[in-house]
Every structure is written in structure tokens, then in C-alpha cells.
Amino acid sequence: MSVLRPLDKLPGLNTATILLVGTDDVLLQQLAGSMLKEDCASELKVHLAKSLPLPSDVNRPRIDLIVFVVNLHSQHSLRNVEESLHHVDSTFFLGKVSFLATGAGQESHCSVHRNTVVKLAHTYRSPLLFCDLEVEGFRTTMAQRLVRMLQICAGHVPGVSALNLLSLLRSTENPSLEDL
Amino acid sequence: MEKQSEEQAAAEPADSGGEGGPPQVAGAQAARPEDRMTLLLRLRAQTKQQLLEYNSMVDANEERTPEQIIQEKQIEAKIEELEKEIEEVKIAFEMKKLALDRMQLSTALKKNLEKMDIKTSVLMDNMTQILNLNKLIMKLQQETWDLEEKLLDVRKKRLQLKQASESKLLEIQTEKNKQKGDLDSMENSDKIKNIQQNLQKEIQITTVIQHVFQNLILGSKVNWAEDSALKEMVLQLEKNLTMIQ
Fold this sequence. Notes:
heterodimer; A: alpha/beta; B: mainly alpha; elongated
């Protein structure tokens, strides 16, 4: 159970489960709150974790989407995410993982360069979202977006799969990063 | 239609690097039969989609085992191709969007132009200014071209002069060399040697004759100092002819 696999459990009826991984507990709680406030036809379950691997003795539903939250203000959060990534099965990266960088708004507080996160996300071929979670409005928008992604990843949207979404989300803007 | 509430957050903070605690969800029951109907239909669609996903995963796993290594490169090539296709479609879309933007802009511009008074319109002013500026730019460009042409002409002339002077210098050099060669050849030629030998001989003969005449005059015991003509002659005989050379 040390490695997290995407489809090793049967899905719950009409439920979608998201796992938020990050060091900043308060921000994660707030984000989870905003997500649960969203109007959504499926039942949402939000799990919070400081880091992976998850303890094996807890009975938890199938996880449909993992969001790694990197706080740009702390090196620790980046390292934590990097270490947690080792405990995720490779099939998860077929669209069921996403990175969320927060804190880019306050440039002076940043100790992690934006490019580092971009490179990390590119290495794992996963979408990278930027959002200042401390601002209420931004958080709500991000929660909406995450809920929509989660629904797709959980298979609640007919005709669209997570992999489908991933290929659509891939940005064309920075092909040079591939050469770096 | 259903409300979720988040509870029991961060229930296990002491857990070693583990989960912060799963917030559980309590779904409310759907009230009316129509709602239930739609819920059931949605659930059906969801289950179908999930079944499709599981099926595709099973298929993928089955395919992989036998020829995984051989296919890897092919798959990579295929992926590249597909990515290329996606990129192409994206680019085409962007192009179309740009064209559409341009068309929209031109239409809006046209409408605006029709509405506005010709004399007062800012757009017209701008246009005329742009035209004037363009004319000015063209004029200046023409001038620069002319100047450049002139410069080129001058450079050409300079080059020609340089070439001419070079050829002249070359000519002078050859001329000098020729002269030098002529001189060298003359000095070494047999003719010159003969002439020199003859000259030497003549000089010797003349010297002998001089001495003979001197002795004749002295032997005749004439006082040669009294007759000025004779004196001159005797003194002339004293000349050393070898110094003439």
C-alpha cells in the first residue's frame, strides 16, 4: 500500500474523491471548504494529507485525483511534494495528477522559482495550475476548476476521460522547456 | 441537489507524515421521483464511463506483456505523430482565430467610419498622418538610396584609381629591373672587354710615345721653357694617361 494506484478499487456510487497533498494545512482546509461549497451533482470527498505515503490501515475510497500543492514561499513544501511523488504509481500520471502552485502573487516572499515548478510539472507530464489560495475569489475559482477536473477524472462526465483532459490541457506555449 | 459538508478535518495530526484525516460526506436523499429518475440515469452514464475506463486499462495491461520492449519505440513515434497532429490542429485554430479577429476588426472599423463625420474623425486624422509619415519615409529612403549610390560610385572610382596606380607602379618596377639587367649585361659583354683592352693598350702606347717625345725634346737640348708653345706641350706630356679612366 506504499504506492498509490489509481484503479485498484471499485468506485463508489456517484462519489468522487480528491486528495490534496501539501504542507500548508490551513490553505488546504480552506481550499477543501471552497470545493465542498461548489454546486455539484456528484458527492465530493476531499482528503487532506501532509505527505505521501498514506497510512495503510485506514479504509478509504478510490482516489480519483491527486493535487500536489506547492507553496512558492517555502522550499520545504517543494521538497515534500518531490518526495511524495515517489509514492505515486505511474499510471496516476495519465491525467489524474495535477500540480497547484500558490503564492506567486507575492513575488518578494518567493523562495522557490516559478521555473522550478514548471519544470517539475513538465517532468511528470501533468498540468500545473497557478493560484493565490489566500485570496478568497481566486480560491473559489480554483475550487470550481478542481471540482470539474475531479468529475472528469472520476468518470462522471460521459465521453471524456482523464487522459483526454490531459492532452487538452497540455500547453504549447513553452516548447523550449523540453530542451532545458 | 445534494449538499456536502466537511467534518472531522485533521483528525490524526500525530500520524507520522500521514493523512490529515478524511472529511466525510453526508449526502441528502433526493426528494421527488423525477429527481430520482435523473439521478439513476446519471449514475448509469457514470457507471458506463467507469466501466469503459476499467476496460481500457485491462486492455492496455494485456497488450503490454508480450511485445512491450519492441513496441516502445513505435509507441514513442506514434505519440510524437499524434502530438504533432494536435499541434497542427491548434495552430490551424489559432490562425483561423487571428483571421476572424482581423475580419471582425475590419468590419467594426468600416461601420465606425461610415458613422463618423469625415472631417472631424480621429481615425481619418490618424490615417492622413500615417500617410504623410509614409511619404516622408519613402522620400528619406530614396535620399538614402541616392547617397548610397553616390558613395558606391566614389568607392568604385577610388578602386579604379588604386588599380591604375598599382599597374603603373608595376610598370615602373619592371622598367627599372630591365635597366638594371641591361647594365649588368653590358658590363659583362665581350665587346666592352675588348674595348677596355684596346683602351688600355692605346694608353700604354700613348704613354710610351709621350716618354719618347719628352726624351727627344730633352735630348735636343732646346730650352723649352722659353717658347711658351713648347713649354705647354712638354707639360702636357707629363700627364699620366692612366688617370683618365
